[in-house]
Amino acid sequence: MTTTIRNVRTSSGGVTTTEAVDVEFDEHISTVRPAGTVAPAGGPVVDGTGQFLVPGLIDTHVHLGSPAALSSAVRAGVTTMVDLGTHPDSLVDEQRRAPGAPGLLSAGSAASAPGSTQIARMGFPDASGVSSAADAERYLDWRAANGSDLVKIIIEDPDATDVPALVVATITALVDGARSRGLRTVAHVVTAASFVRGLDAGVDILTHAPLDRPLPDATVRRMAAQGTIASPTLVMMRAMARARLGDRADAAFENAVESVRRMHTAGVPVVAGTDANETPFAPVRHGEALHEEMLLLRDTGMTNGAVLTAATDGAAAAFGLHDRGRVEVGLRADLLLTTGDPLVDPAVLAQPGAVWVGGTLIS
Hints:
Number of helices: 12
CATH architecture of the largest domain: Alpha-Beta Barrel
Strand content: 15-25%
CATH topology of the largest domain: TIM Barrel
CATH class of the largest domain: Alpha Beta
Number of strands: 16
Structural class: alpha/beta
CATH superfamily of the largest domain: Metal-dependent hydrolases
Shape: globular
Number of domains: 2
Order of helices and strands: EEEEEEEHEHEHHEHEHEHEHHHHHEEE
């Protein structure tokens, strides 16, 4: 069934249309034309006068939990989620099939060193422990057989923790093996030194931002030169600092903020992610946290346009999702209807008037 939105302005790809348009879509967008030139196709007709049609938002770092969490995320306008560590694989499959679910990419069980925190304390299966570069192929075969869309790697800093850490040779084998299978890699990095280990191994996307110190300029320049993408999860770094560091929390969080400021200034692509989860240690609420993240990114000096890009077409490009992220004919109808222009104030996205996922009205 085709939906028609009449007389609406679009805000997409860093540009808000000056004149209103009519937009038609079912699962994909079929028409974007000047207002008044589209005859409704017989399905629902929405009056978009005075409103803005925006691409659905993409959270590039979540951990799946309850169905209620996914529902909350979609109602908040998150139409695609990148799961970076959920087990068992059956849970991912179950949530993909749920009515009204967002689009889901999943890494399933992240690769870590045997005996890691993920395995010893968080319940990840022993099979996710990678003992050596030679063992990387066994792990990657397991992930591919279970339908993983990408590979998540836990990179620990041996000088900052007693937790078992993957050596760079093993990380490199995981990256090379994933690339040979057409899979992107995302690495957990929470210190400045762990960023360097990720760069040495050639990881595609580094997630989190360091609390120990701002990223050195040399590291940031190297990220830009290698085309490395950053998903800083500032909302999670703030939660971690507050949970662990007491009166040092504000200074530590400023290290993360400064790192994002340096990355963006140097031309490193920055995408929006939250590390949303339902754990008791540092819970981050699905959906609403992405809106917080976007405002925190703005506080680093990113423009409103760059912030919207970080959560829409920039995030889509980072993960090879070329079928979404803009209001454009032929792309998925993952859409939000808002009362204000997000290029003027991204906060208007927090309470969308309507959300469509693949053309299906959710709220």
